[in-house]
């Protein structure tokens, strides 16, 4: 297989909520083994994008292809099985479970105790026996990322992973995210409203604004694009 083949290709994706086009003809590609940033002001369509890609929302046009497989008509579960995983902007970690039980539930596979302990440690998470109810929201977000990494996806999409994190947690998360492609053989899309995390993690960025792609390319080029600066100032 071509090493630079995209793990995800999105062509002309359109999602409508009644009269509102939340996504309008969006095209986007993620080369295998890379970390892509998807940014844009509040309401730009970022969460709608991840919902549509992962199969939680019907799309009204366009094509989504994961590692050569067209995802049309596939359920979120089928997409997860094919190697597409996502996290949520809101905290959805159930407090009644232990860390280990939650990870096993999310990863949908038996995870060797050593692998579980090592991966939790890599992410700076509490041990498998800890109860989620005793863990703060910032750390629960890290556990959600760790659990999805242990699902061994081809592509993991993180929806605002830094939301609710302290400055220290934010820096620690950034350092780990940079390592994920090499360490776990996966690709990442990081969706962020806040630019600090993407600045330190994503070499390439795509900007959404009013449901359309405003700019796409190397990070510095995109962040210096006058249209992008204007879109962020206009918030
Ligand atoms: P972002 O994640 O970039 O902040 P969203 O994808 O959440 O933006 O929202 C994009 C647009 O679609 C916004 O105008 C929002 O109000 C609208 N929207 C999102 N979800 C729904 C929904 N379920 N029904 C109607 N409108 C929605
Ligand atoms: Mg959002």
From TrEMBL:
Annotated localization: Cell membrane
Occurrences of domain ABC transporter (ranges): 8-235
Source taxon at top rank: Bacteria
Coiled coil: none
Name of the protein described by the UniProt record: Branched-chain amino acid ABC transporter permease
Residues of the full protein shown: 339 to 573 of 578
């Amino acid at each position: 297989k071509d090493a630079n083949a995209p793990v995800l290709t999105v062509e002309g994706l359109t999602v409508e909520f009644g009269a509102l086009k939340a996504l309008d003809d969006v095209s986007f590609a993620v080369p295998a083994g890379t970390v892509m940033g998807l940014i844009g002001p509040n309401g730009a369509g970022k969460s709608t994008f991840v919902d549509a890609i992962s199969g939680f929302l019907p799309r009204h046009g366009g094509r989504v292809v994961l590692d050569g497989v067209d995802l049309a008509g596939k359920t979120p579960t089928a997409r997860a099985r094919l190697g597409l995983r996502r996290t949520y902007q809101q905290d959805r970690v159930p407090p009644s479970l232990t860390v280990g039980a939650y990870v096993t539930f999310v990863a949908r596979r038996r995870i060797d105790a050593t692998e579980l302990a090592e991966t939790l440690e890599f992410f700076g998470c509490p041990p498998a026996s800890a109860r989620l109810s005793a863990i703060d929201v910032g750390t629960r977000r890290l556990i959600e990322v760790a659990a999805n990494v242990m699902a061994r996806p081809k592509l993991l999409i993180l929806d605002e992973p830094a939301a609710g994190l302290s400055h220290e947690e934010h820096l620690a998360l950034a350092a780990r995210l940079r390592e994920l492609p090499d360490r776990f053989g996966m690709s990442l899309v990081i969706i962020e409203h806040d630019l600090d995390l993407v600045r330190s993690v994503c070499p390439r960025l795509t900007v959404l604004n009013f449901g359309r792609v405003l700019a796409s390319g190397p990070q510095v080029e995109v962040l210096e694009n006058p249209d992008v600066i204007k879109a962020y100032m206009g918030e």
